[in-house]
Amino acid sequence: MSCITRCIGLSVAVAFSAVAFAQGTYPSKPVRIVIGFAAGGNPDVTARLVGQKLSEQWGQQVVVENRTGSNGNIAAEQVARSAPDGYTLLCSDTTTFSINPHLYSKLSFDPFRDFTPLAQMAVPPMYVVVNPSLPITSIRELINYAKANPGKLSYASAGNGSIHHLTTEYFKAQTGIDMVHIPYRGSGQSAPALVAGDVHVGFVGLTSVSAAIKAGRLRTIGYASAKRSVLNPDVPAIAETVPGFDVSSPMGLAGPAGIPRDVADKIGAAVMAAVRSPDVREKMIGIGLEPAEGTGEVYAESIRRDYERFGKVVKQIGLKID
């Protein structure tokens, strides 16, 4: 055997040994979780709660980094282009993987080809609220009122293409009602507009309106899922009136495509253990998030389900952002 052949063989062996060692000792350095949305939002809070628990499990620092812009696309692109070693991960909601591909003509990533779903973490509950000045106390009454007054009701969203916007359009399509869309720049603007009566109806996250609901300034009439929420079991699920209606869109953790299977499994198991831990569950519930641990396969299925569902809605209303 020549020296060149022996050297090449040795180099390959060393390389494979290094990869095997790195996988076997993961994580051997800090792990970074990138978020495409501002601090304080549901993905940010979820990533920090779970990240702290992962740091305790692994004995390694887990750093949360907010890379805002382009509706979460900037953060997704960064993670998609990172090394597939499990050290750069993405925490995202339905927007990035299931909605944006339908809204943007040119994305620098493919939600299915360029990512490895690792684990599902939580569901941000979405409720239907109305201004109490309206004679509406249930989903059935909302449907009947809207049909009797076509185009006279308005609904608020956190912006064009937001999950609040598309969920309401989905609800309109499922029920055959007509409501006028009033987009705002985030829940920080839409929630006060609902309270003031500037707009009548909203599909909203509980955290943005909980104080107004407790004060009787907004009325909760439905939960946008197939089953009632464990957080508010007295609120009927929309599916009780509109069979099959379900927009329970979970947040999860993903990495770039090509992460070694054993590393992906280790991350997924650790995340699910973190979500199951009593302190993390208590904190999630305390801020209005429903813990929903799941494997990477479960998270991948939810991404595909929402991709197909919201793709039909975007096509129906002809919405494009770019």
Biggest sheet strand order reads 2-1-3-10-4-11
CATH structural architecture of the largest domain: 3-Layer(aba) Sandwich
Oligomer: single chain
The structure class reads alpha/beta
Provide a descriptive summary of the structure in words.
The chain has 322 residues and is α/β, with parallel strands linked by helices. It folds into 2 domains: 13-122 and 250-317, Bordetella uptake gene, domain 1 (D-Maltodextrin-Binding Protein, domain 2); 126-240, Periplasmic binding protein-like II (D-Maltodextrin-Binding Protein, domain 2). It has 11 helices and 11 strands. It has helices spanning 3-24, 42-58, 73-80, 94-103, 139-148, 163-175, 187-196, 206-214, 261-276, 278-286, 296-317; strands at residues 31-35, 62-66, 88-92, 115-123, 126-130, 154-157, 180-183, 201-205, 219-223, 251-256, 290-295. A 6-stranded mixed beta sheet has the order 2-1-3-10-4-11, sandwiched between helices. Strands 7-6-8-5-9 form a 5-stranded mixed beta sheet. Strand 1 (31-35), helix 2 (42-58) and strand 2 form a beta-alpha-beta unit. Helix 2 crosses helix 9 (261-276) and helix 4 (94-103) packs parallel to helix 11 (296-317). The longest helix is centred in the N-terminal third of the chain and has 22 residues, at 3-24. The N and C termini lie far apart (60 Å). Mean pLDDT is 90; it is low at 1-23.
